[in-house]
Design brief:
- The complex is a heterodimer.
- Chain A is α+β, with helices and mostly antiparallel strands.
- Helices cover about 20% and strands about 45% of the residues of chain A.
- In chain A, the strands form 3 sheets. Chain A has a 9-stranded antiparallel beta sheet with strand order 6-2-3-4-18-17-16-10-14. In chain A, strands 5-1-7-8-9 form a 5-stranded antiparallel beta sheet.
- In chain A, helix 1 runs antiparallel to helix 2 and helix 3 runs antiparallel to helix 4.
- Chain A is elongated, with a radius of gyration of 19 Å.
- Chain A starts with a strand and ends in a 7-residue tail after the last strand.
- Chain B has a 5-stranded parallel beta sheet with strand order 2-5-6-1-7, with helices on both faces.
- The chains are: A alpha+beta, B alpha/beta.
């Protein structure tokens, strides 16, 4: 059983976070809320999302899985204005999700979850923790996008840096310690990441004021932020690029 | 219901049935894999259902590698290949279980491009080029799986030189039988030897087909006998077409050849090709040959009418003329030819099919633009068009843009491979024009076509 009502902007944020990595997702539902764990098709990034039931206007669910095509979800969201309430009900008999916006009802066939993996969050040893204002990161990404397709995230006890090296040009964003919301760093670390993944992940954090990153050297980055008025928690993991020796 | 082909897919390389040498080759390639040493990608070539994909997946499992798979059910155009294979090939890996597999610990990501010879049409546009790019840039091992090695390498010489090739052979009947017996044991049903013989004989070394057949026969039963197999109505069509041709050419009996044709599951327009191919082998007496071919030609007249008027009732006359007519035309004795041949015309046409298809699509586009039929475009416009297309870069780009020529069509007109610089540049520049930009002439000098204009004779198609 699953039945919920939510504001369209809340759902939109959830959908943006998921569709950044995958086209189809398995939603794990229980009485306290929903969660999604997924690896992207290129096996470069991972998502661990949990949304508490408080994020919804109304929410009730039993333990169950639901396979959803994110594009279809977006189609429904396009019909809604900000502030509209979208209601969702699971039709067990036909294995469909019934969504209504205003006077429109969409009955959505669900995706078979049998082929979808159930990743567990890996154990990573990430020595550095830094919290940056999301706006600063977005600005840095905007500057980098025309220059290169990858970005180096560097953190030292003095501050956080983001560098993008192209063939001819380079871009550098430097945030000294006092411009950071918090910094816990004893050694200098550096890893290189694909820019478009990083950029899409930061874009998905549209409503988050700040993003916390856990970093290592030539090691994945873990990004944490909240959505839906801090009722949804997002953990993204992004694997580094392999640099040639 | 779980498909047995998935349920019993080998988990490790040791369990892959048959092709021991190929499997060992694959394992060795993977174990010594390193960027800058040896080939980064490997092509597994061979017919369907003989363990290519299974071997690739088992390999990744053995070595604890992640797997990124793209197969024919995904769209594989330039964008999606770049998004999945290319980006995957540059970075480290999270496995689908959520482990972080670092290349520093020798754990890699195996990029499996299944059915890589099947990139077709608009939805897969640019896929071949993107695959070549991916292999060049990759920091991770790549496996391309193909049924038809030449269908892939014909379109890209770069792929051929970038990849190591490992060939898989059809499995032996004994290997398939052993595997089927094992499945029967695990599923808890009995199967007799005769039934096994029948299944393996029919599939011709295709393990997947054998397992699928077994499942359809055995699901929900405790015993499978030869009668079950026969009751399913398995019949080998190719065997019967040989038999029919033999009946028609050597029985001399009108009735027998007619009945044989009725029992055959082939349309008259296929059968006539078989008779035509093999008639001269059997009718060695000139007068017999003449009378036989005369009857055959009359049958062909009817077939032509069927094709033109869609008047399928005329098939009956065509059939009678090519069976009875041919069989009674022989007055002397049949030569007793041992083996009949597959129609040469069919094999020629199937070999040139993709070329003909491209020729047709180009002609249609030109015809549409010039308000002529595609036939006229082919015979009157295309020769001159091709000449200018080869020699004038600006013309080439603007035509590619306005006719919306695909990479395949450009490569056909230029006589170059699809992922060659010439084709790529033309298509890229055309794209730029369509987006409102101008041609960058400076890039013309970067390549030279080695084809003399007019060297290729298009009339042969």
């Amino acid at each position: 059983m699953f039945s919920a009502k939510a504001k369209s902007e809340v759902l939109r944020e959830v959908v943006d976070v998921i569709s950044t990595l995958v086209d189809e997702a398995k939603l794990n539902l229980n009485k306290d809320g929903l969660s999604v764990k997924a690896v992207d098709p290129a096996h470069v990034a991972m998502l661990d999302l949990s949304v508490g039931k408080d994020a919804f206007e109304e929410y009730s669910a039993d333990d169950q899985e639901m396979g959803v095509d994110m594009d279809k979800f977006k189609e429904v969201l396009k019909l809604a204005k900000a502030g509209d309430i979208i209601s969702m009900d699971y039709d067990e008999e036909k294995n469909r999700l019934i969504m209504s916006v205003g006077n429109i009802t969409r009955r959505m066939a669900l995706v078979d979850t049998a082929g979808m993996s159930d990743p567990k969050a890996p154990n990573l040893n990430l020595p550095v923790k830094v919290t940056v204002r999301a706006e600063e990161l977005r600005q840095g990404i905007r500057a980098s996008e025309s220059v290169s397709d990858h970005v180096a995230l560097i953190c030292s006890p003095d501050g956080f840096e983001m560098t993008s090296e192209g063939d001819t040009d380079s871009v550098n964003l430097k945030l000294p310690k006092d411009l950071l919301e918090s910094l816990d760093c004893k050694e200098t670390v550096r890893s290189l990441f694909p820019l478009d993944y990083f950029s899409n992940m930061v874009k998905a954090a549209s409503s988050a004021g700040s993003i916390t990153m856990f970093l290592g050297t030539d090691y994945p980055v873990k990004m944490e932020f909240t959505i839906s008025d801090e009722k949804g928690e997002v953990h993204y993991l992004l694997a580094p690029r392999i640099e040639s020796e | 219901m779980i498909e047995w082909t998935e349920k019993y897919r080998p988990a490790t390389l040791d369990k892959v049935v048959g092709n021991k040498a190929a499997v060992a080759d694959l394992r060795k390639w993977a174990e010594t894999w390193e960027v800058g040493r040896g080939k980064k990608a490997v092509i597994l070539a061979g017919g369907p259902g003989i363990g290519k994909t299974s071997a690739a997946l088992a390999l990744a499992n053995d070595l604890g590698w992640g797997v990124v798979e793209m197969n024919a059910s995904d769209t594989r155009n330039a964008t999606s290949v770049r998004k999945v294979a290319f980006l995957g090939a540059l970075g480290e890996t999270f496995t689908s279980e959520g482990e972080y597999a670092s290349s520093k610990e020798g754990r890699r990501k195996l990029i499996v491009l299944d059915e890589a010879d099947n990139l077709f049409g608009r939805e897969d546009a640019g896929g071949i080029g993107a695959i070549t790019e991916t292999i060049r840039a990759s920091k991770q091992p790549i496996v391309l799986i193909v049924n038809d090695y030449y269908a892939l390498t014909r379109r890209s010489s770069a792929i051929k030189s970038l990849c190591k090739t490992i060939r898989f052979e059809p499995l032996k009947s004994s290997e398939i039988k052993t595997a089927l017996r094992e499945i029967a044991k695990k599923e808890g049903f009995k199967i007799d030897e005769e039934a096994l013989d029948h299944i393996t004989e029919r599939v011709g070394g295709d393990m997947r087909a054998a397992v699928n057949d077994l499942q359809s026969l055995a699901e929900g039963k405790t015993e499978v006998t030869h009668d079950d197999v026969v009751a399913l109505g398995y019949r080998d069509v190719r065997k019967t077409i040989f038999e029919s041709v033999r009946d028609i050419l050597s029985s001399g009996s009108c009735r027998k050849s007619r009945e044989s044709c009725m029992a055959l599951d082939e349309a008259p327009d296929t059968l006539i090709l078989w008779i035509d191919e093999n008639l001269p082998l059997e009718y060695r007496e000139p007068s017999d040959l003449c009378a036989g071919l005369d009857s055959l030609s009359k049958a062909d007249v009817y077939l032509g009418r069927v094709r033109r008027k869609r008047h399928y009732r005329l098939w009956a006359y065509a059939s009678d003329l090519m069976t009875c007519g041919v069989s009674v035309a022989r007055k002397g004795s049949a030569y007793g030819q041992g083996r009949y041949r597959f129609p040469l015309w069919l094999s020629k046409m199937s070999r040139s099919r993709s070329v003909r298809r491209t020729l047709r699509s180009v002609s249609e586009k030109i015809g549409g633009e010039t308000h002529t039929s595609s036939n006229l475009a082919r015979t009157d416009i295309l020769p001159g068009f091709t000449y200018i297309f080869l020699n004038d870069f600006e013309f080439r780009v603007s035509m590619t843009a306005s006719l919306e020529l695909t990479e395949r069509e450009v490569s056909f007109l230029l006589g170059e491979k699809e992922d060659s610089t010439a084709v790529k540049q033309t298509v890229e520049q055309a794209k730029r024009i369509k987006e409102g930009g101008s041609v960058e002439i400076k890039e013309i000098e970067d390549f030279e076509l080695d084809k003399e204009p007019g060297q290729r004779d298009l009339s042969q198609f």
